Amino acid sequence: MKLLKEKIVQHGKVLSENVLKVDTFLNHQIDPVLMQAIGEEFASRYKDAGITKIVTIESSGIAPSMFAGLTLGVSVVFARKRKSLTLSDNLYTAQVHSFTKNETNDISVSKDFIGSEDVVLIIDDFLANGQAVLGLLDIVEQANATTAGVGIVIEKGFQTGGELIRARGIRVDSLANIKSLANGKVEFFEEDST
Ligand code: 5GP
């Protein structure tokens, strides 16, 4: 997605060979115009997939998911990273290991909000080693719902997550796919023309 790639080049900060900081438009300050375009792009790619629900993870997956949900006319459910006092035991739970933070956390979704009748589009901000998406897939499976695909804003294609998820036969749509962050420079795979 051209607009997104331009934003990454203009505002992204390469923190290391593995980590890209995009706090100016996605992870802290949020650019609503860009989020709307991203949400509409996901919605257009999945418009014929019979999506009934979008499932994401707090907090940075929520903004693009909202616009996709608005366009597709479906609700957005975000997995919580910490147990909320108002969430009961009625939960689907999965473990997610973060390589960047080197910690494992539980994520959870109330059983009230995903059911066997649902066709789910999973959305997240980054795809790195795939652990967050695997956790969300686990929750969708526990609910006996169907996963139509995974929409990712920024995939780091040089890490293992994309391969891991696609090897399971799951459709993954990333709107920017980074080939390398070497030498402080963002280099993209060039396969996508949106
Ligand atoms: P994974 O579970 O695929 O290894 O990592 C995905 C999660 O880690 C994303 O939800 C995102 O929050 C975080 N993450 C991974 N790599 C990056 C990165 O380069 N930059 C930022 N800002 N977040 C990242």
UniProtKB/TrEMBL annotation:
Q: Which reaction does it catalyse?
A: XMP + diphosphate = xanthine + 5-phospho-alpha-D-ribose 1-diphosphate
Q: What GO MF annotations does this protein's record show? A: xanthine phosphoribosyltransferase activity
> EC no.?
2.4.2.22
What are the entry keywords? Answer: Cytoplasm, Glycosyltransferase, Purine salvage, Transferase
Q: Can you name the source organism?
A: Psychrobacillus glaciei
* Chain residues that bind xanthine: L20, N27, K156
What name does UniProt use for this protein?
Answer: Xanthine phosphoribosyltransferase
Subunit details for this protein?
Homodimer.
> What would be one Pfam family of this protein?
Pribosyltran
